[in-house]
# Entry
Amino acid sequence: MIETQSLSKHYGSLTAVDDLSFSVGSGEVLGFLGPNGAGKSTTMKMIAGFLTPTSGTASVCGYDVVDDALKAKQCTGYLPEGAPAYAEMTPKQFLNFVADVRGLQGDLRRQRLSEVHERLHLGKVWDRPIETLSKGFKRRVGLAQAILHDPKVLILDEPTDGLDPNQKHEVRSLISDMSQDKIIIVSTHILEEVHAVCNRAIIIAAGRILADDTPRALEARSRYHNAVRLRVAEQDKVAERLKALTEVASVEQDEDGALVALPANNSLPYPAIAALIAEKGWQVDELAVESGRLDEVFRTITNVAGSRT
Ligand code: ADP
# Structure
């Protein structure tokens, strides 16, 4: 449904996107992760047909974004970074304008406008100038324009950036809701977002793909994968005992004071630690196995690649 082959973009001597090849199929919500300046927006703009690649190709629903630009755009909804819209228009005027541009007419037009009005809960603000709306509502208007023509593919550039936690939650729910019948690429530098909405993640830095996996598999690369977190009285004494276990590589203290026992060579320290707790009769206030830390994986992967200067 979305395919890129050796997609590249140069700005003068800067290579913003460097030979990216990947494909995204139905049922996938792909998180596009990377530090600022990694090339996420540039890649998305090329797939959305807003920027011409320097070399390589991209296609959407089988249509090349350059050679078959109109057909590719008909299949694509795009929310640019910051979700710009005509500030002096109301959502009603703006979405009617977008409907004109998209060539929507008659019953289909009425039905689509009513659908986005409902789905994005725009009733309260339908006739208010966009410039007077909260960031959350502005973002909803942006999403409404992206899905107005009911595209198969949605490209969302930092859709939750700058929103408060409630608004972020709301936009993530909307994305999950839309993923039922659409292929979605969503860029973010917020790692929790990947868990919340994506079933696949591509990490890019300096314009190149460094990892392409499920969020769970990426977490499993973390040295905290299967680590055991525990809170006990007499932490120092317990830490010494844990360090002596063959399944434990090292013991750290978390920022909030809990002990974290890291696994030695892919081992599972939990059974040995649970047995030790039972044997010693330690009073444990908290005990949990970690799935891994995506932020640590992200830092490791992107630091190895080095940052762009
Ligand atoms: P991201 O979305 O991951 O933050 P971008 O795709 O916006 O990254 O940018 C990738 C690189 O390309 C950055 O170094 C950025 O400064 C550069 N860049 C982006 N747009 C332009 C432009 N219009 N002209 C020159 N350089 C640009």
Remarks:
- The first strand starts at residue 2 and ends at 11.
- The chain has a mean pLDDT of 93.
- Residues 11, 14, 16, 34, 36-42, 308 surround adenosine-5'-diphosphate (CB under 6 Å).
- The chain is about 35% helix and 25% strand.
